[in-house]
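Continuing the batch. This is chain 6 of the set; chains 1 through 5 are on the previous pages. Same settings as before, nothing changed between runs. Recording input and output for traceability.
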Amino acid sequence: MRKLLRGKPVAEAIAAAARKRADILREGGVIPALAVVRVGDNPGDLAYERTILKHAEAAGVEVRTVSLDADVSQDVLSVVICQINEDPSVHGCLLMRPLPAQIDEAAVCELLDPRKDVDGITRASLASVFAGSGDGFAPSTTEACIRTLDFYNVPLDGQRAVVVGRSLVVGKPLSMLLLARNATVTMCHSHTGNLDTITRGADVVVCAVGKPHAFDQRFFSAGQTVLDVGINFDEDGKMCGDVHADSVEPVVAALSPVPGGIGSVTTAVTLDHVVTAAERLAR
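Output for chain 6:
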């Protein structure tokens, strides 16, 4: 393998550019602010919250955390979201998901003002991605994939891209972003036949199925760029991706690692979205 697509330099570049824009906003009296809404104490949510807090200053973003009990009612959570919508000093909201079983997650997501939806969870945000209008925000992970490819000068125009996974969090919106960059996109999923043949024929492969080490060297060929979006834990409790990196690295031209790849860029993109939202709301 010629190149490891590490996320840290990508994230640092995004944060540095966001900080310059945030400083301009601050000179005008606007402090970009993100509300992080967490229900319960899910370890994954807590870890992501800590990551956001750790990196927010570098991007020039103020973070306000809203922590609610795991048994919070639909009405209380709805009031919190509405208060964020109405607060002019808050420019973005990150709602930690999945939500507990007693919450209608789709209904809560739709309450959020799309202008403050910095992680692309509302229908309006997703519609803007599919329409290519640029009005809303794409889910941060999907944009992180594009930003990573751009940072490492991976061409997309005219290239064959395969996205394995069809969720609204990654697969479907990422396919739209790749199409917008003139890639020829094939979307695959658990019912796709001859998946290994399809992935081997691509220039760029994105694995986003959430299954540890689901893709080994059989799925790839020389010269490919592979993005591993999976965040999983193996039988030893060690974080790993969807790609079996040890077997794939000798085959492909470039691979994003897990950890240390797309995840760190996702955080930077979320914070960058907050700055953009503040710019739009300040007009």
